[in-house]
Amino acid sequence: MDEIMTGASGEVSLDIELFGKYELGRLIGVGAFAKVYHGRNVRTGQSVAIKAVSKQKGR
Q1: pTM
Q2: CB 40 within 8 A of CB 47
Q3: Residues 6 or more apart from 27 whose CB is under 8 A from it?
Q4: With contact defined as beta carbons under 8 Å apart, do 52 and 1 qualify?
Q5: Do the Cβ atoms of 36 and 27 come closer than 8 Å?
Q6: Which domain covers residue 23, as residue numbers?
Q7: 38: buried, middle or exposed (CB in 10 Å: 19+, 13-18, 0-12)?
Q8: Residue 30 pairs with which residues in a beta bridge?
Q9: Can you give the pLDDT at residue 3?
Q10: What is the pLDDT along the chain (59 residues), one digit of tens a residue?
Q11: Within 10 Å of residue 24's Cβ, how many Cβ atoms?
């Protein structure tokens, strides 16, 4: 996954689509090495959690 651009509040537009399968939503958690976003499966509508691991901290 490429870097994800967020606003000052950490919110991400639902217009971002990952792999043509998921829509990326709001930031729901932050840890030492990753951020977790709410996502939605485009085909089924099922809610999912999407973890975005930092390239710098994940080494």
Answers
A1: 0.67
A2: yes
A3: 6, 10, 11, 12, 35, 36, 37
A4: yes
A5: yes
A6: 1-59
A7: middle
A8: 35
A9: 45
A10: 444 455 555 554 556 888 889 999 999 999 999 999 999 999 999 999 999 998 886 55
A11: 21
Residue the block writes with tokens 């996502």: 39
What's the number of domains the chain is made of? Answer: 1
- Residue 16, both tokens: 């971002």
Is 38:28 a contact under the CB 8 Å cutoff? yes
Rounded Cα gap, residues 14 and 18, in angstroms = 11
What tokens appear for 58 in the block? 């994940």
Please report, as a single letter, which amino acid is at residue 7: G
Q: Which residues pair with 53 in a beta bridge?
A: 34
pLDDT at 1: 42
